[in-house]
Write a structure and sequence with these properties.
Length: 410
């Protein structure tokens, strides 16, 4: 009996990497997992540790340490080559989006726009949208600079708000993303005003301007009070809000409201354009309408995608747990542990599809590129450049060019 018991220990040592150090057994988990001794796996979650779920497997006492195996970072919801594709998308496309946002900010902002502080509704709205996508770009540049270490400070730990740059990255990402959707809503209203020829009182616009930014700031810094920023287990590459109830309260509720406003603005603009089809100015309002419609579709996709992810997160986790449990069961069966039966072939069951996740990340980074593509060659942009300080200093422009156009069309 002693010989059989000793042989069993030798098998465990060879497979799991258990070694004797000063007469003590040092437990280890099979790759890609990592053993972490703990008595509080729930509390460890707050520090970014994700333990595998194999509670369905009844382990003998000598192997109970296998319950304390950590998931690797980034998660096993996707294969490594998929994560590499997501990371590369954020790094490369985020940089392009950042550059596009900066260019629009320069043209529509105070550096070139003489009417900036006159609170011109259209140019200010475009600037604010680009300003929002600029912050998304900054958060992506942070990721590009630090790499995966920003969200995975250790090989088996997910970043939390207490980590060096995660909180900053999360706030910037939230501020830019939420700001973009709120200014999308106002961009749709601006389209209606431009199509109908209606004007907005500058004081009213100033109040709206301040209110939107105040709400955005409050909703971006609010989650910090609950230590909510961290590397999200699924769906994101950047740091963001961790708990879905906080996500709903500080982000998705505002997105749904903004989409509703945007939808109303789109419908009003279309209705106005239909009534004015004989107007020669109708065509110039179609391009902004196309942009707003595309943005609406993108934000709608984001809502649907994240809604499904959040509602099925436990389901996805259970699928992953079954796969991990299958691997561990077969490993124990191969070691001939008494009472353990083979689980058969471990088939990988897809959780979140690669294409849906890629599209989600793509659409967020597309925002800055879209605002650039639709407005860089617009009549307003060309007039702003013509009337800019630089153009007039070089004798190439007219400082009143945009104001004259504004008086004629707005």
């Amino acid at each position: 009996m002693k010989i059989i018991f000793f042989s069993l220990i030798i098998v465990l040592i060879s497979f799991l990497g258990i070694s004797f150090v000063e007469s003590q057994i040092v437990p280890a988990c099979p790759e890609p997992f990592l053993y972490r001794p703990t008595n509080d796996s729930v509390g460890d979650y707050d520090f970014g540790y994700q333990y595998i779920n194999i509670s369905q497997i009844k382990l003998p006492p000598p192997l109970s340490f296998l319950y304390n195996c950590l998931m690797p970072c980034q998660s096993l919801f996707f294969e490594k080559n998929s994560w590499d594709s997501f990371n590369k998308l954020v790094e490369q496309m985020g940089s392009v989006s950042f550059t596009c946002s900066v260019i629009i900010m320069i043209i529509y902002g105070p550096l070139m726009n003489r009417s900036f502080f006159k609170l011109d509704r259209h140019t200010m709205t475009v600037f604010c949208f680009a300003f929002s996508t600029f912050f998304i770009g900054v958060s992506d540049l942070m990721f590009a600079s630090e790499g995966v270490d920003m969200v995975c400070p250790e090989s088996h730990r997910y970043a939390r708000q207490t980590d060096k740059t995660c909180a900053t990255n999360g706030v910037l990402y939230q501020f830019g993303w939420l700001g973009s959707v709120m200014w999308f809503a106002f961009l749709s209203i601006d389209g209606f005003f431009r199509a109908s020829g209606k004007k907005m009182n500058k004081m009213v616009f100033g109040i709206i301007l301040g209110t939107i930014w105040a709400i955005n700031i409050a909703l971006s810094f609010g989650p910090m009070g609950g230590d909510q920023y961290g590397a999200y287990f699924v769906g994101q590459v950047n740091c963001w809000i961790l708990v879905k109830n906080w996500q709903y309260g500080f982000f998705w509720a505002e997105v749904i409201i903004s989409l509703a406003i945007g939808f109303v603005g789109i419908c009003l603009t279309i209705f106005t354009l239909i009534r004015k089809t004989s107007d020669g100015n109708t065509f110039k309002n179609i391009s902004p309408l196309i942009l707003v419609f595309l943005l609406f579709c993108q934000y709608l996709y984001m809502i649907i995608f994240y809604g499904i992810i959040n509602e099925k997160k436990d389901h996805y986790s259970n699928i992953l747990a079954e796969q991990i449990g299958c691997i561990f069961t077969n490993a124990l069966f191969a070691m001939k542990i008494p009472g353990v039966k083979s689980a058969g072939e471990c088939v990988f069951n897809e959780t979140i599809t690669f294409s849906s996740q890629y599209a989600f990340l793509f659409f967020i980074r597309l925002l800055g590129i879209e605002i650039f593509s639709f407005y860089i060659m617009s009549k307003e942009a060309l007039l702003l450049i013509k009337s800019s300080y630089i153009a007039t200093m070089l004798g190439l422009g007219d400082k009143d060019a945009y104001d004259v156009e504004l008086e004629e069309t707005d």
